[in-house]
Amino acid sequence: MPWDPMRDYRTMKRYTEDFMSLWRCPKPTIAKVHGAAVAGGSDIALCCDLLVMAEDARIGYMPTRVWGCPTTAMWTYRLGATRAKQLMFTGDIIDGRTAADWGLARPCPPPSWTRPC
Q1: What are the two backbone dihedrals, phi and then psi, of residue 104, each rounded to the nearest 5 degrees?
Q2: What pTM was computed for the model?
Q3: 3-state secondary structure the chain
Q4: Nearest-10 Cα torsion for 70, 102, 46, 11
Q5: Is beta strand 93-95 parallel, antiparallel or unpaired with respect to 58-60?
Q6: What percent of the chain has pLDDT over 70?
Q7: Which residues of 93-115 are buried (b: 16+ CB within 10 A; e: fewer)?
């Protein structure tokens, strides 16, 4: 089946609307990342009101190396132009410690705590 740009556009628009429904939600939304929030998972996490990440968790949008920028543009909103460009031009990922240092996420208590964050 040949590639249909309009079908691709409709699909991406639907995904973006689903992601942004978290942002528009009247109740607070919280993303808790203990592993990887990459590609569409990063869009979901960044559309939440609060992002909590374990120090060894990872977040990034590697498909930018092939497909371009994420559809939600939340990287720029949450990080500012300089850091968002750094990640979007390279497709690199960052860990939870870096995300907390940059103000992108709240740090998660260390794993030695008895209850998960």
Answers
A1: -75, -35
A2: 0.81
A3: CCCCHHHHHHHHHHHHHHHHHHHHCCCCCEEEECCEEECHHHHHHHCCCEEEECCCCEEECCCHHHHCCCCCCHHHHHHCHHHHHHHHHHCCEEEHHHHHHCCCCEECCCCCCCCCC
A4: 10
A5: antiparallel
A6: 92
A7: bbbbebbbeeebbeebeeeeeee
Residue-wise pLDDT tens digits, 20-70: 999 999 999 999 998 899 988 999 999 999 999 998 899 998 888 887 777
Encoding tokens for residue 75?
């990287």
Q: Hunting for tokens 């639907």 — which residue is that? A: 14
Residue 83: exposed, middle, or buried by beta-carbon count in 10 A (0-12, 13-18, 19+)? Answer: middle
**Letter for the amino acid at 116?**
P
- The position carrying tokens 């009101």 is 49
Tokens representing 97 are 């410690």
